[in-house]
Amino acid sequence: MQRRTLLNTALAAMAGGFSTLPAFAQGNWPTGKPITYLVPFAAGGTTDVLGRLIGQKLGTALGTTIIVDNKPGAGGSVGSEVGSRAAPDGYTLVGGTVSSHAINVSLYPKIGYDPIKSFVPVTLIGTNPLVLVVNQASPYKTLKDVIEASKGKSGGLSSASAGTGTSQHLSLELLAFRSGVKFTHVPYKGSGPAIQDVIGGQVDMMFDTSVVAAPHVQSGKLRAIAVTSASRLASMPDVPTVAESGLPGLANFEVLSWQAIFAPAGTPAPMVDRLHKEIGRILAEPEMQGKLKGFGMEPANMTTAQIAAFQRAEVAKWAQVIKAANIKAE
To answer: ∠129-134-138 over CA atoms, to 5°?
Structure first.
């Protein structure tokens, strides 16, 4: 009788222990609780557009709701820091970029997270070059026009960006460093407001991803001057590369932006694996592939281990560029 009582007590204790196990261990994740997709830039930018496209489909696949939460500032550092401090329970995702997860750690004296140690990679969505654009009414039609005009203006032409340290900013600084010409950098809290001021004529020009720039070029609001890829974009075959300008110092000029999805470090591997697979299926859909290529993006297909290696290489590359060009955070 005493042994039976002890056995029952032990079984009850085990049952109580099982009930407190994380949801993923019981196969119940997600439980229906919304998943927050942090976008560390303002609405309307590349990261935001992709987050909403993927989030809608991912929510359906997981049987829950994906809430896109924009937290812009400091070239993606503000929102990324918030994401790094979130509970690693599978209910927070972060839209990472070349700026937030490769550039900023070398650009800013101190950021509140480590782009590698504070996160685990989930998916590399794709890569894409940037496009140098001006207002359609601008007198500048070629990169040579832009360079010559900047030489003749105190402080140089003004150029908007989604924030200090973003790929838009680094593209400008690399152009200035390579050409020996000065420009005035005008940082915003995201591509959306930045490109609107280029359209409105308040800023002379801007480097931006084709995700954001292409619709405005197609509508006639902006003129595309050059792309930062090694070869011309299939979606913009008439727009020359920066290197094609033939200007001194610009041979082999290339800048690629990239978009990825991360989770806070410590997020259980089963959750990361499922997210990787589900998002991979979404990105492989013909409709989504068409949209990515229409944006000028080259879809990526990497394992999480390959993404981690790619990210480490990007951190090292941009550290060298920032040091060589003596770029400082404003």
So the answer is: 155
